[in-house]
Amino acid sequence: MTSQWQLRAAFAARLSDMYGREVPAYTTLVDVSREVNEDVLRARGADAERLGSISRVTAERHGAIRVGTPQEMQQVARIFGALGMRPVGFYDLREAAASAVPVISTAFRPTSREELARNPFRVFTSMLTPADPRFFDDDLRARLETFLAGRELFPPELLALADRAEAEGELPEAEAERFLQLAVHAFELSTEPVDKAWYERLERVSAVAADIGGVRSTHINHLTPRVLDIDELYRRMTERGIEMIDTIQGPPAWKGPDVLLRQTSFRALAEPRALRTPDGTVIRGALRVRFGEVEARGLALTREGRALYDSLLARIDEQASAHPGKDRSELAHTVWAEHMPHTEHELATSGLAYFTYHVAPDRPRDGSRPPTRISELVEQGWVRAEPIVYEDFLPRSAAGIFQSNLSGEGSRNNDQQGAAYDAAWLSGAIGREVLDPFSLYEQQQNHSIRQAARELELDGALDQAPHLPEGAS
């Protein structure tokens, strides 16, 4: 039998192989990522693996796909459910982007620490919002919804196997192989000719809308390796002549702890596609829809930490607007150095980041009683704090990646009122709860606190500490 995590690992590996064949520059990206990671490991030793073992980091991938309707999103949820992946987080890229990006998103991923350690594959999944009048008038919305209703992205056999794998937690070897074949094929770039006029009509609204609603299939848009030094990777990719986007999205590079997520990519490539003209003739053309993204992951921030992060971004925006001639990365570095805690210990004692806490093997053995405050337990050597890696995404960074790879700004009528979507709506649409990432990190942290308290015979004394500010008890 093939378990869910084995299906997940095999699917991620096969998807990577397929994408490398279709987008050769992706293979270069993976190779450079591996080289950088090996160099960082040699230079930093065990410290390089503080946010995940090198084997996990090397195997780690996140994919991105786009669908058009709630039904298609619900089917995607069934396929990823077979792999032990659940929807986590709600991202509204319509509000995060300055240009026209009419999608809402969630990420399907494993949720337990054990499953993440086995294989942390995640897929950022976006859904088109035809009901938003800022992007689609009544006529275009009707045409788009009719088009989407007439296509089938995932064959019934794949969905049936997915349901079985999710219900039983595994598949027999032959069925597992069939599931993997069908699933990988579902995300390959189709060779079916694209209706040129229809695609261009949607492209005038948004290149993302055209990529989703202008074709009769879906495909993997990017597959992202994880790197331990994204600035060095950016430099090496540029040296190899691969055109990268202008910036690295997310927090700036600095000497303090890495937090949340930094991302960059090479620009979308013009890929040959068959196009059908209005008179029925099929011609050879090219579309830019797929690109190579890479990411560096940091500590997961608490709600308070995330509020600080967002306030610092706003401060950087204000300063960049007030001083247009100044380098934005330098402004960001200065703001970070002034306002972001400089050590993991400060992040923990300020309640700004999530950690797990483990009884130290070399804890005091002089017969003294341990203190009942987490901060004191760490300072006195009773427990050690291990950072929880951020497993999720940032709307603004995702929108920045989307925008940097678009051929145009598209169109957006801000005189119209946007359609309302949120996590509750998406949960209802796909029939599965969209989980809150903060709650998942907090559960992981609190579980470790309770376990440490039991081992130190402090049962109850630490159970009431949901966060870890100085003085928590």
Automatic annotation (TrEMBL):
Cofactor: Fe(2+)
CDD domains from the UniProt entry: VOC_YdcJ_like
Pfam families according to UniProt: HGLS
UniProt cross-references to InterPro entries, sorted A to Z: HGLS, YdcJ_bac-like
Keyword Zinc-finger: no
Entry-linked SMART domains: DUF1338
Signal peptide segment: none
Keywords annotated in UniProt: Dioxygenase, Iron, Oxidoreductase
EC number: 1.13.11.93
Enzyme class: oxidoreductase
Gene3D superfamilies in the record: Uncharacterised protein PF07063, DUF1338 (3.10.180.80)
Molecular function terms, GO-annotated: dioxygenase activity
Domain of life according to the entry: Bacteria
Protein family per UniProt: Belongs to the 2-oxoadipate dioxygenase/decarboxylase family.
Name of the protein described by the UniProt record: 2-oxoadipate dioxygenase/decarboxylase
Source organism of the structure: Streptomyces benahoarensis
